[in-house]
Amino acid sequence: MVKDKKILLCVTGGIAVYKAAALTSKLVQAGACVKVILSESAAKFVTPLTFQALSRNEVYTDTFDEKNPQVIAHIDLADWADLILVAPATANTIAKLAGGIADNMITTTILATTATVWIAPAMNVHMYDHPAVKKNLSVLAEYGYQFIEPSEGYLACGYVGKGRLEEPEKIVELIEQYFASSGSQPLKGKTVLITAGPTREKIDPVRFISNHSSGKMGYALAEEAKRQGADVVLVSGPVQLQNPAGMEVVRVESAEEMYHAVLNYFDHADVVIKTAAVSDYRPKIAYQHKVKKQAGNTTIEFERTKDILYELGTRKKKQVLIGFAAETNNVAEYARKKLETKNVDMIVANNVKIEGAGFGTDTNIVTLYKRDGTVSELPIMSKTAVAVKIMEEVTALLKEMGKYGDC
Ligand code: PMT
Fold first, then answer.
1. Is the pLDDT of residue 187 over 60?
2. CA 323 to ligand 1: nearest atom
């Protein structure tokens, strides 16, 4: 799977540099096209000539050593790479990348790339455990960088622990898997807007009405759209889930806030998927102070919230628009009705009373209703697998609308 893939190997200065030489050789043997940037410190461990001979390409060390006057080297490399791998990645380079510092050929190139970046840390076990390194790694995770965890074993400094650069054979295997699974990115160049989670409608400062949505279904869709290459905007109601990496996440509370957030992004979206369980009603009055209990019963008057999906259906021009239907009975009838009244391209219906489907679970059981009358009943599967199926339909709908292949 790595044949003809363009891999930019960034080697920073630690004893594990010798392994990077073996890694270069193994990648080339597997058919990859490898270019290498060495940091100044890395070049003290193993010479550029070694990497040049193994990669059969020129090796870069100095940002100002412009080998080809037709291009600017670090931008050219940043654009060239299918995958950038920093191996070994020192604590110093990890800190620079986390801080957005661009003071050498490696950091300037990585700052300028849109390619996937993998970091393979290698350092002393206590360095790896230091809170500063941990914090920097989590910042990089938020930026969407991926990691090849160091393995445990004997370290050059004499310690035994976690910090060894993963073995070159294993790294090649991981790269092979990566290209095998992400070889096709059918949503590259597309903007996908997804809503997830519940909304909360205030009664007073301490009370609200809401529902059981955990956000899992919507977040799985957002992750899958991202994996398939889309630029993702996730508008999320209040949930306990972490923001997924590599996408814009807009947190909202109420249906009204979700309405404004969604409309803000709608015009630029190619695909909109409304997974959120939006409250249909809100208390007519949201009290400024806590409502005190009194003798006897009380009544809250509710008013309708805006139906966001309906509104999108009236405004829709170029977008593929997908809605969900959470039902407890007459699923097919209600789903078909929503398909029509909300002017959407597909409804994903789930009977939320069935075990393994709907709110809070890691699985779902859905049926897809399309405008051409097609109905696909899917078996119980993980929400991630449901997301893959929905994205397959999205790609098909984009193709039907002639919106495919123009990226
Ligand atoms: O979040 P999880 O715990 O993973 O659970 C997943 C889920 C059950 C929330 C999800 O699978 C699901 O069914 N989402 C839709 C829930 C819902 O609100 O369904 P509905 O049938 O009431 O609404 C139909 C569609 O209109 C939905 O796309 C909804 O987002 C949209 N809507 C509804 C009301 C409103 N005021 N504005 C809307 O946009």
1. yes
2. 28
Question: What's the per-residue H, E or C state across 174-211?
Answer: HHHHHHHHHCCCCCCCCEEEEEECECCEEEECCEEECC
Helical (H) or strand (E) element with 161: strand 160-164
Give the end of a domain, one of 181, 214, 239.
181
Whether 405 is in a domain gets the answer: no
Same domain, 164 and 42: yes
- Per DSSP, which regions of 12-115 are E strands? 33-38, 59-60, 83-89
Distance 298 CA to ligand 1 centre (A): 29
Whether 277 is in the pocket of ligand 1, judged by its Cβ within 6 Å, is yes
Is there a catalytic annotation at residue 407? no
- 350 CB under 6 A from ligand 1? yes
Residue 254's domain comprises: 186-288+299-400
Q: What is the pLDDT of residue 253?
A: 98
Closest residue by Cα to atom 23, ligand 1, is 325
Residues 6+ apart with CB under 8 A from 363: 356, 357, 380, 381, 382, 383
Q: Is 164 in the pocket of ligand 1 (CB under 6 A)?
A: no
Domain shared by 226 and 160, yes or no = no
Q: Which atom of ligand 1 is nearest to the CA of 311?
A: 39
Q: Is the pLDDT reported for residue 353 higher than 70?
A: yes
Over residues 180-201, mean pLDDT = 89
State mean pLDDT over 6-29: 97
Q: Mean pLDDT score of the chain, rounded to an integer?
A: 94
Our answer on whether the CB atom of 400 is closer than 6 Å to any ligand 1 atom is: no
407 in any annotated domain:
no
One domain, residues 86 and 233: no
Per residue in 262-318, pLDDT tens? 999 999 999 999 999 999 999 999 999 999 999 999 999 999 999 999 999 999 998
pTM of the model: 0.64
